[in-house]
Structure formats: C-alpha cells, structure tokens
Amino acid sequence: MEDKLERAVPVTAYVDPSCPFAWITSRWLVEVARMRPVDLRFEVMSLAVINENRELEPWYREFNDRAWGPARVCTAVSAEHGPTALASLYEALGRRIHTEGDKDFDAVVPAALAEASLPADLAGVARRSDVDARMRASTARAQRLVGEDLGTPTVVVDGVAFFGPVLSSIPRGEEALRVFEGARLLAACGAFSELKRVRADSLSFA
Could you list the pLDDT tens digit for every one of the 206 residues in the chain? Predict the structure, then answer.
C-alpha cells in the first residue's frame, strides 16, 4: 500500500515589507516550504499602524513614517490581485530593501511592481490613505491572534499564532526544518508564552 501523501501545513505570515525581521522570518518559511508540504501565504501587518500613536525614538519614528508607503502598496495588491501576487511583490520588495539595502522607496516600489508583473500605477497607492482601513483591519486581525503588544513577524501555523521567531539570519536546509518543527511544537502548547534571549549577531539576509 502506498504511503499517504503528507498533508500540507497551512501557514500564514503577517509581515511588513519594511521590517528586516519579518523578511528573515519569511525567507525561513519559504525555505521550509521548499522542503516539505506547506501552504504558505502572506498578509500585511503594518508597523506604521501599530506604532502610530506611540512615543518612539526619533530614528524609529522616521522609520515607521516611511513604512506606510510599501505596506499600503502591498495591501492594495492583496485586495486587487490576491495572495499569489502579494507574495511575488513582497519578495521583490524585500530583496531590494533588505538584501540589497536600497531604502529609496520611491524607486524600489515601481521596480518591484514591474518585477511582479503588476500595474505600474499601484505605486501611487503609497501616498494615498484609501487603503488604510483595509491595512488597519489586517493588522488588527493579527494582533487579535497574538496580543496588541506584539507585532511583525506574526506567524500562524495550523491555526495557532505566535510572534516571531525573531531571527538574525535565515535558517537553511535541515536547520530550517528543525526550527519550524520546534516553533510548531512550542506554539501548540497552550501554556507556552515566551522564549527570548539577547540578540548578539548583526542581521544577515544571505
């Protein structure tokens, strides 16, 4: 008798395209999906929305104020073109912003849209607020799953949500699978709340 095919694990990652930690976590999940059946999708969780009314260090306030644009474009793409288009755009944005270090969003957004074969006029959404209600709704949905004090990356595996994992580099190969199974196991424990240590390494997007 043939073995039954392994069930694809449903995974949703709530991300902000400007967030380097969300980018690393997302690439880890892509690596996992390359090696085992995972039904991976992305949704927007906006740092600009989360931190809108918070007192922040000046540098972090500037970061959050700039983060509105890419997140708005991702929100519009998700609404108008669906999750597959969002995944393509997010990959194109993240590679430019984080891996290549290009923080010129006025140039990055149109280039990423072109790479993802999406309409060029969507770049204008970055400066419009008409998608903000939808972006606030997706952000609130993620916060309801993990708590208002937490942010992106938020990951949902088999219907169980958790913040993180926050990683300084992208686990690859068997290590990626071990991290996934470990996170999945901890998340499934209803008593589990937090596991954390000081981050010593600089971020690596390789």
Answer: 344 457 899 999 999 999 999 999 999 999 999 999 999 999 999 999 999 999 999 999 999 999 999 999 999 999 999 999 999 999 999 999 999 999 999 999 999 999 999 999 999 999 999 999 999 999 999 999 998 888 999 999 988 999 999 999 999 999 999 999 999 999 889 898 888 888 777 899 98
Query: Could you tell me which residues are beta bridge partners of residue 156?
Result: 12, 161
Alpha-carbon distances, residue 93 vs 97, 109, 125, 185, 190 (angstroms): 6, 7, 15, 31, 35
Domains belonging to the chain, first-starting first, are 9-188 (3.40.30.10)
The reported pTM is 0.93
